[in-house]
Amino acid sequence: MDKIALIGGTKKFYEYLLASGGNIVPMNDVSKAIADESLAGMILLPEYEDGKEMVEQMSVEDIEVLAGRKRKGFRVFAENYYCFNYYQCSVFGYETTGKICHISNENLCAQRGLQYKLGGDRILQASGAAYIPAAVNFRDPYVHEQFVLLAKGNYIGTSQIAAKVVRPDPMLIQSGSVYSCLLSMTNFDTVGMRPNCRWKKVFSAVFSKVLNIPAEGLEKAFEAFYPPLETRMKPDDVIPMECWREKEEQALMDAVKWHFDSGVILGDGTTGSVEMILSSNLELYKARRGDAGLYTGWLTYAAGKYFKNEKWQQVGLNNFEYFLEHAQLQGGNLDGMFAWYTHKDAGPLWVWCIDSGRCGIALCNMYRLTGKEEYKDRIKRLADGFLRWMDGDLLKGCRQAYDDPLVDRPFEKAANRTPDFYSEMGAFMTMAHKIIGKQEYLDAVVKVAKKLVDSYPDNFEFHGHTTSARNARFLMLLTSVHLAGGADYTDMINHLIEYIGSLQMPCGGIYSEDNMNFERGDPNFSANDENGITTPWDNDRISDQLYCVNNAVASLSLLNYVPEDSGIHKKEGLNILHKLLEYVVKIQIVREDKRFHGGWMRAFCMNLGEYYGLNMDKYWGPYCIMAGWTMGIIPLALLGDLENRSPYMFEA
Fold it and tell me: What is the spatial distance between Cα 30 and Cα 181, in angstroms, rounded to a whole number?
């Protein structure tokens, strides 16, 4: 069996190569390795475990020896090798244009022969990995094949690229028997390098050639040494009905624990909570956001009552009270509305209608749970604030700037025709109508619903969320109005139930779809930073837990209150809901790392069976775990299912 020298790298990678069936000889001297005629090849890596991310350029004498051995077929895999002159370039196939950098927002795409191995234009990610900026400038006159296998660029798409990238940067180059990797591929990070199943193919394709061993062993060892981010179950697994309640309770409990263990909840809650685990670096985003904080407090308190956990109840109440005190505005025409963030000295000083509506839903539920009269007064102030914001049948704008201290100032923007801004506002206003008894609250929402129904779908205005998320929200608005007796929207509700059902996969998940804006040729579609997870250019099936799945389970839960003899397709809708709740239980993250355990990232690819999905949004991004939106709405839907109620309908 061919002997291959290994210089540098990590202990884990060495053990992986051994488990794959390779005949690996650890060495620490490049000169000895390239001079040893008993060796058929060499793997040259940075000393990662010593904190190094780059291999320094070898001497001219050594490169002369290596060039001669390359012409005889000596196989080399070199990673982050600092190559900066013609002679070096003739061996390794590239010349550097800079030293070490780090991958942040760029994606990688398979090229040429690697496309065949991965099945076409396949996109990968290596978030945070070190890399050497390089240009492919020269050819070795003794080598007749030299090409790029992986290229880096701002690719749009998830599997197949939607548009070619001009002058992509080379990242994996083959020059004869030499493979040059310009990123820290072998220092593999099972969290930041996605999708795991494609990287497995890359490793097997390259190292089967370098080591001259079968690819199957490399793939099998990869699964053992570099497993993907684990989930509670596989998406296609079936949860027996007799186990469902136990599984649902465990998922709810782990979701609440995530808020404590990840550090999202600050201490005992008296100083609030922070917003999320960011997608870009998978670290805490230490900002206090009003709607996320109120949902965190509500969830923790409500789950504490369900599980009879007094600590959770107290922390939840503390957290809720903190955000009531710091986020609900007092004075001016925005009195009662909720600030987007509570950091008034630093900004941003914005009020969003969707966030304020969500805050109102939390208020109504905490009023139901605690009976505090103060909450009832706050509900009235918020609902009256929405009335001031209304301009006939729509809001004057989706967001408003405010001053600190508050002063009266005119509302700034034109009305926006999209359910994205009205669903939670509508649900809150119908709940406030029931609590306060003020008819104007319901009347305002009836006007909004009529305007949006009349605009559906061709005259909806563009916003960054997907068509599927928009329709899930629309279902919440129309069902709330219908159940409150404001108007009969049976046909439209049935249409939206049917639409959501058409997106449901056998595993129970619904995929994110955004054909509406794409078919219009909207110029913002491919560049908008929140245009969704999946794209209409390929056949990926990716669920979006931040905007789509969470809003779908919330909206569908309202069907519990539809009379059995109505014309609404209640049974079909609740069946979709149950399958979707099973899906989120199955894909809940199970991992020792406390940042992730009990959480749901935004993007899960049902085709691949792992957390993966690309779009242009790198900040919130595909891999954020966000309190309130994902980690509030989904667990509260599980709790509602356990209690046979919906959080979006007020019951005294």
Answer: 17
Q: Is the pLDDT of residue 445 over 80?
A: yes
In angstroms, the CA 172 to CA 45 distance is 14
Please report the DSSP string for 290-341 in residue order.
HHHHHHHHHHHHHHHHHHT-HHHHHHHHHHHHHHHHHHB--SSTTTT-B-SB
Task: Report whether pLDDT(500) > 50.
Answer: yes
On whether the pTM is more than 0.85, the answer is yes
Using a 10 angstrom Cβ sphere, with 0-12 exposed, 13-18 middle and 19 or more buried, the burial of residue 432 is buried
pLDDT-derived band at 514 (thresholds 50, 70, 90) equals confident
State which amino acid sits at residue 189.
Answer: D
Nearest 10 degrees: Cα torsion 199, 205, 209, 211:
40
Tell me the C-alpha distance between 36 and 7, whole Å. 14
The DSSP bridge partners found for residue 135 are 95
Strand order in the sheet with 123-126: 23-27, 3-7, 41-44, 75-79, 178-181, 169-175, 146-153, 107-110, 123-126, 193-194
What's the CA gap between 620 and 603, in Å, rounded? 11
Q: What is the CA radius of gyration of the chain?
A: 28
**55 DSSP 8-state letter:** B
Q: What are phi and psi of 343, to 5 degrees?
A: -85, 75
CA distance 306 to 312: 10
Taking the C-alpha atoms of 64, 66, 71 and 77 in order, what is their torsion angle to the nearest 10 degrees? -150
Q: Identify whether the C-beta of residue 232 lies closer than 8 Å to the C-beta of residue 585.
A: yes
